[in-house]
Amino acid sequence: MLVAFDKIADEARVWIYQANRSFSETELEELHTKLSNFITQWTAHGTDLEASFEIKYKRFIIIAVDQTKQAATGCSIDASVHFIQQLEKEYNVDLMDKMNVSYKQGQYIAYKDLKAFRKMAKDKAVTGNTIVFNNLVATKAEFLENWEVPAKESWHGRFLN
């Protein structure tokens, strides 16, 4: 069952998929339709999941499931991963690689592989105050509070010495 992202419980489990490029306006419209259709039909052991999604900065797909109503099971999580993999193929975009970092560079979102980000930190091109996206948050509440944070307050901080 699709619910509005602002209405889903703060305890809802979230998965964040960051794209290696921004989506176009046309792609965003298509993604909204595809995500709505997927979530509307998404089930765990035949029971609808109360779920939602949000697309941020034309680059991040956030999927949330209220597990207090019905837990996402291995099969339902596999279905969501398969859906994301289909999007990767359809839009020729990388959404699953966790070894990349997105951060704010002025009003833009920059995307680097971990090695390049580490080098930028060493060269002081990014600092502890650089806003990074902590895609490891696990709940909607964590997403709202700790997703966009200064690098020094995230796992990214280990590269800043």
Number of domains: 2
Helix tally?
Answer: 4
> Mind telling me the C-alpha Rg?
16 Å
Share of helix, binned: 25-40%
SSE sequence, one letter per element? EHEEEEHEEHEHE
User: What general form does the structure show?
Assistant: globular
> Can you give the mean pLDDT?
92
The structural class is alpha+beta
Query: What profile does the largest beta sheet have?
Result: 3 strands, antiparallel
Q: Estimate the strand proportion.
A: 15-25%
Notable characteristics:
alpha+beta; two-stranded antiparallel ribbon; 9 strands; 2 domains; 25% strand; 32% helix
Task: Tell me briefly what this model is.
This protein is of the alpha+beta class. It has helices at 25-41, 74-91, 114-122, 140-146, and strands at residues 13-18, 43-44, 47-48, 51-56, 60-65, 100-105, 108-113, 131-133, 148-150. It folds into two domains: 5-91; 100-159, no CATH class.
